C-alpha cells in the first residue's frame, strides 16, 4: 500500500486457494486491481501469493465504498469466473482498522 491513511478505515481481507493453471487469472487480477484503484473510496491494496495460497488486503474509506466495489459489474463477472474456474475456496473478511503503526529501516 503506497499511501498510509490515518485510521479509522476499512480492510477487506481476501484469502484464497487457487486451482491449477492460470487460465486468464493473472490478467484478470491485474485488471481488477486497476479497476478497484479507480473506485471512489479506494485507499490501496497489498497482495501476496505462495504457490496456491493467496492473501489480498484492500483498503477502503467506508463500508459503502466496499459494497459498491463488491457490486461492480466487472468485479461480479470476475467473482463468478473465480468460483467456476480459479479458486478451490476463498474467504472474505471485512474489518475496521482502528489503529495502525509501522517500522521501517
From TrEMBL:
<keyword id="KW-0560">Oxidoreductase</keyword>
<dbReference type="InterPro" id="IPR007138">
    <property type="entry name" value="ABM_dom"/>
</dbReference>
<dbReference type="InterPro" id="IPR052936">
    <property type="entry name" value="Jasmonate_Hydroxylase-like"/>
</dbReference>
<protein>
    <submittedName>
        <fullName>Antibiotic biosynthesis monooxygenase</fullName>
    </submittedName>
</protein>
<dbReference type="Pfam" id="PF03992">
    <property type="entry name" value="ABM"/>
</dbReference>
<keyword id="KW-0503">Monooxygenase</keyword>
<feature type="domain" description="ABM">
    <location>
        <begin position="28"/>
        <end position="80"/>
    </location>
</feature>
<dbReference type="GO" id="GO:0004497">
    <property type="term" value="F:monooxygenase activity"/>
</dbReference>
<dbReference type="InterPro" id="IPR011008">
    <property type="entry name" value="Dimeric_a/b-barrel"/>
</dbReference>
Amino acid at each position: 500500500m503506497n499511501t498510509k491513511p490515518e485510521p479509522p478505515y476499512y480492510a477487506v481481507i481476501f484469502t484464497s486457494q487457487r486451482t491449477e493453471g492460470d487460465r486468464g487469472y493473472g490478467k484478470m487480477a491485474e485488471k481488477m486491481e486497476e479497476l478497484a484503484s479507480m473506485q471512489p473510496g479506494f485507499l490501496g491494496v497489498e497482495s501476496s501469493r505462495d504457490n496456491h495460497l493467496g492473501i489480498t488486503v484492500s483498503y477502503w474509506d467506508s463500508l459503502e465504498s466496499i459494497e459498491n466495489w463488491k457490486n461492480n459489474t466487472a468485479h461480479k463477472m470476475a467473482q463468478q469466473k473465480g468460483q467456476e474456474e480459479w479458486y478451490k475456496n476463498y474467504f472474505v473478511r471485512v474489518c475496521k482498522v482502528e489503529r495502525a503503526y509501522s517500522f521501517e529501516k
